[in-house]
Write a structure and sequence with these properties.
Blueprint: H1 2-7, H2 11-22, H3 27-37, H4 41-53, H5 61-68, E1 135-140, E2 148-152, E3 158-161, E4 165-168, H6 174-185, E5 194-200, E6 205-209, E7 217-220, H7 227-233, E8 246-252, E9 255-261, H8 263-267, E10 283-285
Parallel strand pairs: 6-10
Antiparallel strand pairs: 1-2, 1-5, 3-4, 6-7, 8-9, 8-10
Length: 289
Amino acid sequence: MPGEQEQAPVKELVQYVRDAQKAGLKDAQIQQNAVKAGWPALDVGNALEFVRTGSAKPAGGEASAEKSAPKEPQAAAAPPTVTAAPAQTTTAPPANPQTPPTPPGSTPTEAPADAGSAVVSRGVPDDYRIGEGDVVQVSVWGEPAASVGSVVVRPDGRITMPLIKDIPVSGLTPAEAEKTITDLLSKQIRAANVTVIVNQINSKKVFFVGGGVKKEGPLAYTYRMTIMQAISEAGGLTDYAKRKKIYVLRNENGRQYKLSFDYDAVLRGEHMELNIQLLPGDTIVVPNH
């Protein structure tokens, strides 16, 4: 709620404002640059007000980070519905209620005509690709015995389900996995209605090394984050970080690339092209003095 955000601006954003003021930027320019970097305008205004008046105590920890974490710029695709929080897991509710098992000898009940027309939350964006280590839930409407409440995608990219055994799902979107499973089930269940939900994202990560951020190690890649946003998710820079010497290591087609990033320049609104969108598997190196 706005009132809560005004009372507790996220501490990383407050530090961002203070750093910008030390660099000689005016409030209007700080507001513009922070929004470009991915923070919501309302949260930036709250942080500026806090720095000016000291009327509220910045809130640390996960709860405030969830409320005030920077969001993807409008030009990019909408962020997924999973929460980008340190827990790294999001459990979505079952898409459809399960009906009692079909009595022996009777014909399985088909899903209502409008069962597939409802908007289904699969826990991830429509273009998300399932990967090894992700935890998925597979619900077959009206057929609880054929459903799977929670299953981990194995290193071979497959999951195991009743009736149809091993199914390859790695590299598929949830909708594509639904079609694959539906096609396999159709030989045994007439008009099968399948929903695939990603309960936990474990296959997509970026990594922080170098000692210059407050939370080193893997960071769940749950939305299309920029370098500046990832640094915020990792707790921000330490006092001894080499802010102009940050770089990203990226592997593409067997080759490794080094992409430089100047934190102070982006903070001032300069060279915004350096604030690139990260890809799963990227390593962000933040050197320490």
